[in-house]
User: What shape does this take?
Amino acid sequence: MAFISRLAALYRAATKPVNELYVLAEQGKITSISGQMLADVTLSITRDNRPGEQSFITARLDEKARAKFEGARALWWDAAAGKQRVVEVGSKPFKTLRQRFQNEAQARAVAEGEMRRGLREGLSLLIDCPGNPLLAAEGLLMLDDSWPLYMQGRWSIKSVTHSGAPATGYRSSITAEGLSV
Assistant: This one.
């Protein structure tokens, strides 16, 4: 399991135990691990969005304060030529990966994963809303025109926590990232 987790971290993949298998899947894809298409879950703000109401929705948008990059650069060793080579994906500014890879294909795959991660993790959205069993990690969240303009559109759900209490009822807490598809 530790080996699969390291592979997942290297290639920016999501991992999940399914029956007796441990499955790897690319983050932000619109298919479930079983291969079925995940439908967008649309979330709307009600007209009377007040604290204390069952339908009350709160949201917070965080922009990571670290340096932004739009591409990734990976190094690999060309044994035939006896040289270190460079693979660049995306556009400047590049994030240079520290690890040197064995071949061009591996370097390109890891660089593409790092570029996707950087683009997706630029924005993080935290939402607390009425419970919805269709919300699932790696699913897609669609914020309609009832939301502020800068929040509207598709988001990739990173995690969801469903909870229920007599005072608040069934609620879902969502962490989503900006989607770069």
Summary: The helical segments are 2-11, 104-120. The chain has a mean pLDDT of 82.
